[in-house]
């Protein structure tokens, strides 16, 4: 009896799985659409609209913040991060219509040397990285690189590639729902899964090079010496000296290649040499 009961359940379970798979596939093919990037003009396959990116980023920010010791208490340091970030945004874009409400957060974590960007404009730098930086120009390099990830929509692209149907469905459902309406436990679990994916996201090599390129462009336009980005890479490499791989390189790989590419790009941007008037 128990066995027959189990078989019946299994068949019912199969049907349910098929229904869920069909629903997920149709939903994914609906949302993972080809979309023209509003800033770069490039066509991309992304899992989220710009508005959904912003919602998911805002929903994920508290969890990421918690993972790295909360927000740093040093208001002056946070103000420096804001000032440099705002200068990059104000002067870095020339006529491009940037739809993201950027926010820059200094995280308290004193050991993990890293910086992150969530989809939609939430940018983070740990105290461990911040305190190793020597100039505003270097801080600009880190933040401009992260702005590049947001502008290029690497998170939404990554989510479109990954098989995150359940999480996406939940995340998008909540993103599109009335903020006053209650969220079911299942929806909440799905959102938590999506947030976990976003928070632990690792970008690929091409994404990093693309963000480095944006970083250099934004720095130069905002009046920062793009060569500060080379020093950022050196600082990151040095900080991993005592055993363990530096955290930044697990999410931001290939430091040596990147330094070479950065030098080459700066040479192309400034064929006559980098002017001395730029802030280091
Ligand atoms: Zn990166």
How does this structure look, described?
The protein has a three-stranded mixed sheet with strand order 3-5-4. The chain has a two-stranded antiparallel ribbon with strand order 1-2. The protein has 280 residues and is mainly alpha-helical. It has a domain at 33-158 and 201-269. α2 packs across α7, α3 crosses α5 (136-151) and α10 (228-239) runs antiparallel to α12 (255-269). The protein has helices at 2-31, 50-67, 75-92, 127-130, 136-151, 154-161, 165-176, 185-199, 205-221, 228-239, 247-251, 255-269, and strands spanning 33-36, 43-46, 103-107, 115-118, 122-126. The protein has twelve helices and five strands. Residues 1-8 and 163-167 have low confidence and may be disordered. Bound molecules: zinc ion (ZN). Zinc ion binds at residues 145, 149, 203, 208, 211, 252.
Task: Provide a concise account of the structure shown.
With 280 residues, the chain is mostly helical. Helix content is 61%, strand content 8%.
């Amino acid at each position: 009896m128990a066995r027959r009961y189990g078989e019946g359940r299994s068949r019912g379970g199969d049907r349910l799985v098929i229904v869920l798979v069909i629903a997920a596939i149709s939903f994914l093919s609906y949302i993972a659409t080809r979309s023209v990037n509003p800033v770069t003009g490039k066509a991309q396959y992304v899992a989220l609209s710009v508005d959904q990116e912003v919602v998911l980023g805002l929903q994920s920010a508290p969890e990421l913040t918690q993972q790295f010791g909360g927000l740093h208490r040093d208001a002056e340091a946070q103000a420096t991060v804001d000032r440099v970030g705002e200068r990059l945004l104000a002067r870095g874009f020339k006529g491009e219509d940037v739809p993201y409400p950027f926010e820059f957060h200094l995280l308290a974590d004193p050991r993990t040397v890293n910086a992150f960007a969530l989809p939609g404009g939430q940018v983070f730098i740990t105290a461990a990285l911040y305190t190793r930086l020597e100039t505003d120009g270097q801080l600009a390099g880190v933040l401009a690189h992260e702005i590049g990830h947001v502008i290029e929509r690497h998170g939404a692209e990554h989510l479109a590639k990954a098989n995150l149907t359940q999480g996406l469905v939940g995340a998008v459902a909540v993103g599109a729902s009335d903020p006053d309406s209650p969220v079911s436990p299942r929806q909440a679990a799905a959102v938590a899964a999506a947030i976990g994916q976003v928070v632990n996201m690792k970008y690929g090599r091409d994404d990093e090079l693309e963000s480095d390129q944006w970083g250099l462009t934004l720095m130069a336009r905002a009046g920062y010496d793009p060569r500060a980005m080379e020093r950022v890479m050196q600082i990151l490499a040095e900080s991993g000296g005592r055993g363990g791989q530096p955290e930044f390189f697990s999410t931001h790989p290939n430091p040596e290649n990147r330094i070479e590419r950065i030098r080459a790009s700066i040479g192309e941007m400034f064929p006559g040499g980098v002017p001395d008037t730029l802030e280091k």
